[in-house]
Fold these 3 entries.
Entry 1:
Amino acid sequence: MLDSGVSQAHISGKNFSMNNDMKQCIEKLLSGERLTREEFCLLIQERTKETASKIAEEARRRKQAVYGDSIFLRGIVEFSNVCKNDCYYCGIRKSNEHVRRYRLSKEEILQCCRAGYEIGMRTFVLQSGEDGAYTDSVLEEIIRGIKKEFPDCAVTLSLGERDKDSYQRLYDAGADRYLLRHETADPEHYRKLHPEYMSFEHRMHCLYELREIGYDVGAGMMVGSPYQTERELAEDLYFIQDFRPEMCGIGPFIPHRDTPFRDQPAGTLEMTLFLLSVIRLIEPEVLLPATTALGTIDPRGREKGVLAGANVIMPNLSPVRVRHQYELYDNKICMDDEAGQCGACIELRMRTVGSRIAVDRGDIRRDGFRSGILCRKKLE
Ligand code: 5AD
Ligand code: FES
């Protein structure tokens, strides 16, 4: 009798203090205060359905206050699947001999942009593996070509790690934004996802260089990548809070059959949605995509992402004949849909969650406290 009374008191005491810590974390998050790594960790570990839905509701409200009900489209042109890297998670890693490698010409890339423009896209994302055939001068030509034909559009690059001089030349040629997911903010975790010759420090260095040049920069990570725990995710959130990327791409890890991670479990919908909401609250102006990977693990994943605080969708503009060769993970969606089909599909999907597609470049709102800021911390 006495025993049970004591343990009950102990349990409720413990619960009380846990809830209190959690409550404090949520209050800090909602009031725009910085959280420590430990607080981010607690937030992730102690999340419940109820806290996730409260945070999602607040994230939606913040998004609405900054961007209204607009969803911005980014048309992705996957122009080359040749890659010199060998990331353990990625389907187009150089060791995968089952992939037929392809490269698109400037004219083919422009064709993709035309199809995207027709359906209201005003940002084109040029994405590829790290392919040395696309030298600075080849890329400058392509960027200038797009800018000339579509002066009202933004060009986003997603070409991996290059040197600063190269980033500068591409920026001078007219590129506006650059996506380079940091993949993980923990150096030890980074080593478990990449071969030895790839460097965490170099990747981070690139992000700071891009920022310095003047690009709008996108960071991001996979959710549920192998060896990731709440601690690594907390580190990611802490990095995002520090670096303040203009864009943040997060989606679930999904295993690919021809990679060393083929038997690893995929990341979850629930955790991805939770993190989307937390990131929206850390950085209310951030441009946050509901990724294709999210749409792959759940048929309404992208809609759910929008309800969790995302405000960007990135439909595929690559020619259908090469899409199957750009499979970063298994069962990627929209493999056979032409631009027009995707456009109509996305339009309808967004309407079901009270959002509408904006025919707009979808630049980051800078009128608030962001104007003129650089990151808070700089790596040497
Ligand atoms: N599952 C989910 N996302 C992946 N990416 C690469 N491979 C996978 C995978 N198996 C993501 C990486 C990369 C982006 C282009 O795609 O985060 O930066
Ligand atoms: Fe491509 Fe639905 S978004 S078919």
Entry 2:
Amino acid sequence: MGYTIAQKIIKAHLLKGEMTVGSEIALRIDQTLTQDATGTMAYLEFETMGVDRVKTEKSVAYIDHNTLQCGFENADDHRYIQSVAQKHGIYFSRPGNGICHQVHLERFGIPGKTLIGSDSHTPTGGGIGMLAFGAGGLDVAVAMGGGAYYITMPKMYKVNLTGRLQPFVSAKDVSLEILRILSVKGGVGAIIEWGGEGVKTLSVPERATITNMGTELGATTSIFPSDEITRAFLASQGRENVYTPLESDEDAEYDLIINIDLTSLSPMIARPHSPDNVVPVKEVKGTKVDQVCIGSCTNSSLVDLLKVAKMLKGRKISPSVSLSISPGSRQVLSMLSDSGALSDILLSGARLLECACGPCIGMGFSPNSGGVSLRTFNRNFEGRSGTRDGQVYLVSPETAVAAALTGVITDPQELGGCIDIQMPEAFAIDDSAVLAPAGIDEAKDVEIIRGPNIKKFPDSTPLTNELSAPLTLKVGDNITTDHIMPAGAKILPYRSNIPYLSKFCFEVCDPSFSERAKQNSANIIIGGTNYGQGSSREHAALVPMYLGVRAVIAKSFARIHAANLINAGILPLTFKNAEDYDAFAQGDQLVITDIFSGLDQGEITLTNASNGTGVLLKCDFTDRQKAILKAGGLLEYTKEGGI
Ligand code: MIC
Ligand code: SF4
């Protein structure tokens, strides 16, 4: 049997384990990336490992999420990250240089290499043929220290593309279409390979838009072949030397094959509040729009913004709409400016924001109360925009501009005209905003700068054989990490201050959770399916750990969040029978006994002391995961000598 692209890269990086679906494998990691919102914690963790210099081929620290610097907190964290990077051999991408995934694609991504990043959209690198995973900060810290990255060997899915996209239909519509087909749970446990003749019609940034949103499918990662288009992109970035071709074998086998005819696609839109709530734009046309945001790691490439500029040229946006544009990188912005396209954007009435995540993570530009916001981003979870009742829709840049011009949701195909944009042959290259680390000798003298906002890493509690705790919170299906640990301009500056962050835990679902949890010595949470989908933020595990959460019981978990819970020493347990979820009510007193032997048997009994019901829970952990849980988390485990 032949290999898929992902299997080939896995095989070349396999340190431990068998490549059979469902078994644990350990991978050698070539590159890492962090961003500031998860990076401070990741570097604090890295420091505790006592490794002088990163062991990866390339590690980059980006500052892109939290660039507002409303107070000293962000600014201090940025200084901290800069000094750690300088000392330990990490490249530092300065604030304003761009969004990690966009810059990494442009300047550092290499086909066939492995990358993990403390950000769930790291699979963007799959657009260039990298095997790129989102991970918790602690996993990234371990990889920087030379440790392996552990995952469960995924299934292989293939999406075969045929045909060619019609004018005003773009890669984002492909992402939304696959979300419509598979849902936010449809990619769980799988790597999605994009192939077929239609792939040849997509540029690297378009491919990256698609792999970026594979995260919203719950996929382990997504990947495109590395072909002549990849070579041309790398050449235009002055990096042709890192090109290697990569394709799957003809007889590679897939667990699922989906066919999409690009020619038949029309503009799509995800309605509030889930990226898979997708319909054709036509179905919601005419809805009044208050705000339009163009940018994010999904849609902020040069080609995206040149299209936007062409559609806006000589036109004015609707007086009732506020339009923001955040270019993905300094390279994109400088080329927009040199080509004159920036003026076309500005003269239309758009507002230019920094090359950063910005509104995508609620850092400003929140919609008005109940306001309708069309965004080219990848997530529209409730409250994520910073406005609790904001109505966020996800669209392509073309659909975004159409709405900005007309003031209502509009199918961009109805606007007419032509927006064919060619990829430039050469990108403007200036890496001066990426600071190289100090050399080995000078590094000894680099002092780490720690501001007062950086608080101690919270202590974890080693696992006990019996757990008796109230069911402090019961939630439903598809709970996101934005529910568990919200972000946004008010909270994001405190990502290195777990005690402060803890006040906001589950604020969107239940504002009293944090106070109630603090009163108990231990707490249990029950959730539905796909618990913890969304971001890779380990804060969604560290903060509950700080609040005394010892176990989360759900119908199923999202991959990165389950790994983060284990890393934090919290038991992620699943109901053996999903219907047992109904046997519990918030406030019930729960007891789990014989945890240690249960872990070995793969099954634990949960008793509801309030009504006497007993149900079985699955705990299918690998030996390494059991050892991490017993130690009280990955940090304790590594301190005890585990790898
Ligand atoms: C997100 O899009 O939710 C974020 C903010 O980029 C997160 C990371 C974080 O919470 O810092 C992610 O996707 O992992
Ligand atoms: Fe930044 Fe948004 Fe991308 Fe997350 S999804 S990395 S917040 S742009």
Entry 3:
Amino acid sequence: MAISKSLTSPERGNLSDYSGKGLLSIADLPPGEIWHLIQSAIKMKQGDKKEYLKGQAVALLFEKPSLRTRVSFDIAMWQLGGHAIYLSPSEVGLGRREQIPDVARTLSRYVDGIVARTFSHQTLELLASYATVPVINALSDQEHPCQALGDFLTIYEKKGRLKGLNFAFIGDGNNVASSLVLTAARLGVNFSIASPSGYQLQRKILLKAREFASHSEARIFCTPEPHLAVKEADVVYTDVWASMGQEAEAENRRLAFANYQVDAQLLSLAASDALFMHPLPAHHGEEVAVGLIEHPQAAVFDQAENRLHIQKAILVELIGAR
Ligand code: CP
Ligand code: NVA
């Protein structure tokens, strides 16, 4: 039985609305389910050693490199009594050696879930539409939902609450920023983002976030000015200027983002106990000043650890009931 079945929360949505469909976007999760995943992850972290996924397996289908996501999903399955099979970018040749619908249907005959990291979000959607097992987004060009959920677990642990906190994102309106703004808007966390012209959040993400915020009373603020975004922030967050797949744009992006580095001075303009967060990998000296990761307010390795706990909760939720 999935752990979700034994836990209740007044804020939970209806599980049957999405259970078994996987997790491609934070928009798939009602606020109650996000809370449930956070609570479930805390229980896992506190030492719940039950093998909820004994005898079950997932495929880790990756088109891009990874350290945290690959290792944390593999260890998560092992700790839950199940098994993970890693499929590297070169061996499957998704859409080249073999068509995506055929990969989805073949893997569905072997495993109970597919954890996929893709260049295009459409690849994930196509995989999910043909797979008969849940597909979990392990990062696409659109979103990184497992990262955002682990990050809000980290913030909740450190601050003891989420609703009403102020979150500031400095930099590219990328996949990580998109999942973060959607999670914040779902949970009533105020979200400010400072990005240079041409690198803001996608309009469709912003519209969706504003729709969620209208229910949660979160405020969403977009500005080109980092110092305005971090005012009264409880969290200051940044990510790389050029994401995986954008390597050819790296030089242009370095110029566009030159004034968007998070350093100790910018952090000092936020609340005195603001967290500094980064999903890693970091480019020290670009989006994050050299040494900031060692700052007493930095929470980056807690974020990395919490990927394991939140993903255990996600796996149990989506795959445990199968
Ligand atoms: N933060 C994150 O997803 O790291 P990896 O790319 O190493 O998996
Ligand atoms: N935005 C980054 C996140 C890496 C975890 C990328 O997509 O490369």
